[in-house]
Structures are given as structure tokens and as C-alpha cells.
Amino acid sequence: MTGPPLLPQDAEIVGRSLAEPELFALLYDRYAADIHRYVQRRLGAGAADDITAETFLIAFRTRSRYDTGRSHARPWLYGIAANLIGKQRRAEVRALRALARTGHDPVAESWSERADDRMTAQTAHAPLAGALAALSAGDRHVLLLVAWADLTYPEVAEALGIPVGTVRSRLNRARRKVRTALGADPAFTLDATEVV
């Protein structure tokens, strides 16, 4: 009895796609939904399709520069998406400030099935959105790549092209600022699941 066929590692796909470009679609199939979800949480549904498509277009065009010593392309793709989101920073900050002001989050609203859940979520999201809007772009990128994309510290460092120590310090600073903005005890530990 044989098991399911082994799927090639990301680095192998990128390397082989230089001669067989159609293979790059395997990376799209693996990661597009995750990248789209992440961008949608950051910028809303309107920008998610475009940013996701542009992320993979840039990845495809620059695949010859991919370090095939890195077996997983996930951080690379999130790094490209983060750079594109950075270009949309004003739109993101505007959306976060609107959420902080009104408490209305259409993205979170679609996740909740009951009106009670939506009301609770909106009440909790408004102050958090204001706290996120107040963060620097670098701190916000690190916090949300950890919280929403589930990247490890080394993966965030790879995605953003910064040292792991910088990831740790930015994450610590971002968590401290968010805790303070939410009126939490400074000793309170902000879990990634709480940044929704």
C-alpha cells in the first residue's frame, strides 16, 4: 500500500518553475487563501483580491532571486504582501480609525453568525482598532504577522528582512502599547488570539 504522493517543497517548486513556469501555480494553490485572508483583515475585502494577485505576480517575477536554501516560501510571500500593505498604509490607518470611532467592522461582522456576537465583537474591536492605528507601520506589521498570519519570530524576520531581535523588540513594544491603549494592566500578557 502506498500513501499519498509527496508534494514538492516550496524551494523545489520555485527552482523548477524557472524552467517550467506553470509549476508556480502550486505555490499559489498552497498560500493564496492565507495571504488573501491576511490582507482582507488588514485592508478589507476591496483591496484583498488586488494585493493577493500582486503578491503572487511579484513573487513570480522575482522567483529567480528566491533563496532555495529556505524550504518554505510562506514568509517570503507574507513579506511581499506586507510591503504592498505598507504602500496602502494610509488606507489601513483610515479603516482602523473608522473602526475605532464607529465600532463597525464589516469583516468581523461576516465572521459572526449571531447579532449578539456581532455586538460583542464590535464593542471589543473599536478600542483595539484605535490602538493598532496608533502603532508605527513596523510595529503593526510584526504584531499582525504574528497574530493573524501565525508566523514565528524567525519567519517574521525573514518576511520583513529584519533581525529576530528586532522582531522581538517591536513585538514587545507593540504589545505594550496596545495593552496601555486598552487600559490593561501593564503586567497583562496580550495573547495573539486577542488581536482579532
Description:
By secondary structure, this protein is mainly α. Helices cover 69% and strands 0% of the residues. It is built from 10 helices and no strands. The protein has helices at 10-17, 25-43, 45-61, 74-87, 89-102, 106-111, 115-134, 137-147, 153-160, 164-181. The longest helix has 20 residues, at 115-134. Residues 106-123 have low confidence and may be disordered.
Q: Identify low-pLDDT runs.
A: 106-123
* Structural class assignment: mainly alpha
Beta-strand portion reads under 5%
**DSSP E strands, number:** 0
Count of DSSP H/I helices? 10
Mean pLDDT score = 81
Which value, in Å, is the CA radius of gyration? 18 Å
Write the layout of secondary structure elements.
Layout: H1 10-17, H2 25-43, H3 45-61, H4 74-87, H5 89-102, H6 106-111, H7 115-134, H8 137-147, H9 153-160, H10 164-181
Concise structural overview:
The chain is 69% helix and 0% strand. It is an all-alpha fold and 196 residues long.
What features would you highlight for this structure?
196 residues; 69% helix; 0% strand
